[in-house]
Specification:
Homodimer. The protein is α/β, with parallel strands linked by helices. Helix content is 35%, strand content 27%. The strands form two sheets. A six-stranded mixed sheet has the order 6-9-8-7-10-11, sandwiched between helices. The chain has a five-stranded mixed sheet with strand order 3-2-1-4-5.
């Protein structure tokens, strides 16, 4: 059996991962630039396959979660030209086995549905909250096999960028803290790191607490680029799964 190439295309970055029926392989992160051409994407994919010692002819499908519509036709053309295979887009070409109770189901990002599906297939808990720390911070609520809805909040990096770009004296920071206990910063960098990391942890802890009024005793899963940073100081996050969307794409493809 051949391999599949998974794409988690977000507004800031696109994560790629090779996989087969045994599970996920190495993953790579590239900047999302919809203005690039399909040839540009194809040449980058060829470089990744060469590094992984994988023949392009061994790729049987590209499986994509995308929230960037201008990128979709580029990946489709790239898959046909460089890999001689079809691109399967989650929730459009590849069904995601979740009941979608959103008032306007078409507005739900594919990454949200795929992440919820992955969490549902992984955990036995009736109630789940899936937190994705991406360009935006999202909290998706799952009850049994239904996506009930959720919350969309500012992202950690976008908030940090807005602060650095909108002020004259605030520097860019690395968003790391050395201890799980909050302390007041004694440099501007420490003040920003403490404020952003602990601030976002407190935000999601408070929101999980309020959502728990409707969603009793939820199991909380965190994913996304900065999930590890926030999870280390959060009181509500039960488990960290950085590759939750990739795992969901893999499950959806092989369970189809």
């Amino acid at each position: 059996m051949g391999k599949i190439l998974l794409f988690d295309a977000g507004n800031t970055n696109t994560k790629l991962c090779l996989a087969d029926d045994q599970g996920l392989g190495e993953s790579y992160t590239l900047p999302t630039r919809p203005a690039n051409t399909d040839d540009d994407w194809g040449l980058k994919i060829e470089s990744i396959l060469l590094r992984e010692d994988v023949d392009p002819a061994d790729i049987e499908a590209c499986v994509i979660s995308s929230v960037v519509p201008p990128l979709d036709p580029l990946i489709s053309r790239m898959a046909r030209r460089f890999l001689n295979c079809e691109a399967l887009f989650a929730a459009r070409d590849l069904p995601i086995d979740m009941d979608n109770e959103y008032a306007r189901p078409e507005q739900v990002g594919a990454d949200i549905l795929v992440g919820c599906y992955s969490a549902r297939m992984t955990y036995d808990d009736k109630n789940l909250i899936v937190i994705d720390f991406g360009t935006a911070t999202t909290l998706a609520c799952v009850q049994n096999t239904a996506f009930k809805g959720g919350l969309i909040c500012p992202g950690v990096l976008s908030s940090a960028g807005a602060l650095a770009g909108g002020t004259a004296k605030l520097p860019k920071v690395d968003l790391t803290v050395s201890d799980e206990s909050i302390t007041w910063g004694k440099t501007t960098e420490e003040c920003l790191n403490q404020g952003l990391v602990f601030g976002f942890a407190s935000m999601v802890d408070g929101l999980v607490d309020k959502l728990s009024v409707q969603l009793k005793d939820p199991f909380v899963v965190a994913t996304g680029g900065l999930a590890r940073t926030i999870a280390q100081v959060s009181d509500s996050i039960d488990e960290l799964r950085p590759d939750l969307v990739m795992e969901g794409l893999w499950m959806a493809y092989y369970n189809r």
